[in-house]
Design brief:
This protein is an alpha/beta fold and 622 residues long. Helices cover 32% and strands 22% of the residues. Among the domains are: 88-150, no CATH class; 319-519, Class I glutamine amidotransferase (GATase) domain (Rossmann fold, 3-Layer(aba) Sandwich); 523-621, Immunoglobulin-like (Sandwich), CATH 2.60.40.1180. Strands 9-8-10-11-16-15-14 form a 7-stranded mixed β-sheet. A 6-stranded parallel β-sheet has the order 1-2-3-4-5-6. Strands 7-18-19-24-21-22 form a 6-stranded antiparallel β-sheet. Helix 11 (250-262) runs parallel beside helix 12. The protein is flat, with a radius of gyration of 26 Å. The two termini are 28 Å apart.
């Protein structure tokens, strides 16, 4: 193939180029598979890397010539695709951690004679045996599960990708380097990003994001946006997907595109925009260069994104729901889902049990149903950007992260416990560091129903704990007299203990309002999910109807927009003018499984309307 000729053509037409140059970046086609040397020596082994250097050196010479730093079109290089672990470094990893086999045996509760015997134990490594599914079925204890998961998701992927990235840089590559992943459980994004400039994510949503998959996809996309330095999708489903994902129709593309953007994604590479093997049927461009209906649907979306100046809008969100990867590992260890420790990408059905670790999964669903503006926040990331954080998770957390949460509160943050605060470390041994730093205690068990007033309304709630007599200020009390929520000032911040279930939509909305959680936009319909994006000139509301029936919805915008009669309000897909009330409420109808994009332009801001030439050129350059 004439690679340089192709790159010259790309450059001539004002396009950018992203190189997925491997040495392993498999596509879903029957193209002969990996090169022979990879099949012979095994992918991602030390021997494979030695043999791959000749390839890296050869392609790097081309990438240097066509780099954007050299005036060319090349802007990014992907060094691998969906990195999964093999055992090639497991012995080294365990020796570094334990030193002697006797120490490992004591930690794991095993009787191995050597580290080689550990490596040979496929049952413990995979966490399953014939006819059974989970780590405990093969006699693996929690410590061994922690070690195996650390190796598979952190140690191996990071060191492998680090070596690849170093190889490309040594041969003169000077553009950002990235890798990507399908499901977040195959790798630890936070750890892997230490090896590259950023970690992208592959997004293949089930057709029109049905049922519980809406919650799963939100965790998946939004958590990557929280972790990644550049939350971009190198593989964003286009065309007809495999593995039961369903067709990427025009309607599906509108749903998934605006779902992802409203969850924080900054961009996507539509894959396969041009048809090829296994992706036939709905690709916007056919293999012989014809366009389908989906071409015009994409063009319509990108026209709107240009017209609302999307790239210069900021997404409004100041509430975080804390995520700790080891909680998910423990859920797998206990046998709670369909994905086992060695089988992260196997999703055999639309059963999302693999994410249903309680109570995080339940509160994710409740927050989305309540249309709360929130992010899923990895506890290792910068927490200070969120004035309010929610902890709804199992009661164990590593010591360093217990300390980090205490410092977050002391420095002015508000930490809300919707489940008991951590009193165990990551190995589930007693560790009360966080509770002692915050001066909090567990409440008294109540386990009964009570009547609670929130925002002038009465609700029947399940009360698990009462906080009478604690060194804390009562915050909420049931009509029966139980202090079901309390708070305590710690340094510059506050900590709240909530002892009742807030999983019902109206109860959760009332609690968030009572806590003073910053709100930006909210619909009155649990099936309509909204987000607010704005700058000095305009505010844009994205409203997604995730239900199958059409909904007429009232949407409240909370920030003062300084509305006047001269503000222009328009739904961008239909070009319909809308009315907005003095208290910043607008009403509109959204068909089932569809999206509305509402622009509120300030006085004096002209409406952007792209002509055909600008539209076509802008389509490619967005």
């Amino acid at each position: 193939a004439n690679l340089k000729g192709f790159l010259d053509l790309v450059h001539k037409n004002g396009l950018y180029f992203v190189a997925r140059s491997g040495p392993i970046c498999l596509g879903e086609i029957d193209g002969g598979g990996p090169p022979d040397y990879a099949n012979l020596v095994g992918g991602r082994t030390d021997e494979f890397l030695k043999l791959a250097e000749a390839w890296v050196e050869a392609v790097s010479a081309v990438w240097r010539e066509y780099s954007i730093e050299n005036g060319g079109p090349l802007i990014l290089i992907q060094v691998d695709n969906e990195v999964s672990a093999n055992k090639s470094h497991l012995k080294k990893f365990l020796q570094e951690k334990y030193g002697r086999i006797e120490v490992l045996n004591e930690a794991w509760g095993k009787n191995y004679r050597s580290f080689d015997e550990v490596v040979a134990d496929d049952e413990v490594y995979s966490g399953r045996k014939t006819g059974e599914s989970y780590a405990r079925s093969v006699g693996a204890n929690w410590r061994s599960c922690l070690d195996i998961m650390e190796y598979k998701t952190r140690y191996f992927p990071r060191q492998y990708v680090e070596r690849l990235a170093e190889m490309f840089k040594r041969h003169g590559v000077d553009v950002p380097i990235f890798t990507n992943n399908t499901f977040l459980f195959l790798q630890d994004w936070y750890e892997l990003q230490k090896a590259v400039d950023f970690v992208g994510l592959d997004h293949y949503a089930y057709y029109l994001i049905p049922g519980d998959s809406y919650y799963w996809d939100y965790i998946y996309v939004n958590l990557n946006c929280n972790v990644s330095r550049f939350p971009w999708s190198p593989e964003f489903q286009c065309g007809s997907g495999m593995m039961m994902f369903g067709p990427a129709t025009s309607q599906h593309q509108r749903m998934v595109t605006f779902f992802s953007l409203s969850a924080g994604m900054v961009g996507m590479n539509y894959y396969m925009f041009v048809e090829r093997e296994r992706w036939e049927g709905f690709c916007p461009v056919t293999e012989n260069g014809k366009v389908r209906e989906e071409w015009f649907a994409h063009r319509h979306m990108f026209r709107i994104l240009h017209e609302v100046d999307w790239k210069n809008l900021s997404r409004e969100c100041l509430l975080g729901l804390l995520w700790y990867q080891e909680h998910y590992w423990h859920f797998l260890y206990e046998g709670g889902g369909i994905i086992q420790p060695d089988d992260y990408t196997v999703v055999a059905s639309k059963d999302y049990g693999h994410l249903a670790q309680e109570p995080l999964w339940l509160y994710t669903k409740a927050l989305i149903d309540a249309d709360a503006d929130f992010d899923v926040v990895d506890v290792r990331t910068e927490l200070s950007r969120y004035p309010v954080l929610i902890y709804a998770a199992p009661p164990f957390l590593g010591r360093e992260y217990q300390k980090k949460l205490a410092e977050y509160v002391e420095n002015g943050g508000t930490l809300v416990f919707l489940s008991p605060p951590p009193h165990l470390d990551v190995e589930r041994r007693e560790c009360r560091l966080l509770m002692e730093e915050l001066g909090i205690e567990r409440g008294k068990e109540v386990n009964s129903r009570g009547t609670l007033n929130l925002g002038g309304r009465s609700f029947q709630v399940y009360v698990a704990e009462s906080y009478d007599g604690l060194d804390a200020e009562p915050f909420l009390r049931t009509e029966e007299g139980d202090v079901c929520a309390c708070r305590r000032k710690v340094g510059k911040g506050w900590v709240y203990l909530v002892g009742f279930s807030a999983l019902e939509r109206e109860v959760l909305v009332g609690l968030l309002d009572a806590l003073g959680v910053p709100a930006f936009v909210r619909s009155d319909d649990p099936f309509v999910r909204t987000s607010l994006h704005r700058n000095e000139e305009r505010a844009v509301v994205v409203a997604i109807n995730r239900g199958t029936e059409g909904r007429t919805v009232r949407i409240k915008m909370f920030p003062d927009l300084g509305l006047t009669s001269e503000h222009q309000v328009e739904e961008m897909f239909t070009r319909r003018k809308l009315e907005i009330s003095a208290d910043q409420v607008l009403e509109l109808h959204i068909p089932g499984k569809e999206v509305a994009v509402v622009e509120v332009r300030r006085k004096g801001v002209e409406r952007v309307d792209l002509d055909k030439d600008k539209l076509i050129q802008g389509y490619f350059k967005l």
